[in-house]
From TrEMBL:
<protein>
    <submittedName>
        <fullName>Uncharacterized protein</fullName>
    </submittedName>
</protein>
<feature type="region of interest" description="Disordered">
    <location>
        <begin position="56"/>
        <end position="116"/>
    </location>
</feature>
Amino acid sequence: MGYLGSRFTWKGGIRESRKRVFKRLDRGLANPIWRLVNPEAKLEVLTRINSDHHPLCLTTNPDRVDRGMATGPYGGGTCPPPPPPIICPHLRSVPATGNGDPVSAGDRGLHGYPQI
């Protein structure tokens, strides 16, 4: 998943070489089915204020976000409230593995869904 904003999400201290260290520590990750359900989603790297990390804002429907002068814990704009969860009746009976392994689409109620 791509992003908008700064390439780096963390700013470190000044090293012996007098150079500041910048790294991209924080990222967004989405699987193909989630991207099909949320095709307009975007990940934005927000302005860093009072922290060494840039906060990330994941927006699933950017056209509905009000970019007014909202304030939040980082002083700048805040993310909109999260949308209600998407519940698919075909997936309710699928057990989660909890170990990061993909769930097989065999006989677990995923008929008609593409296998990844």
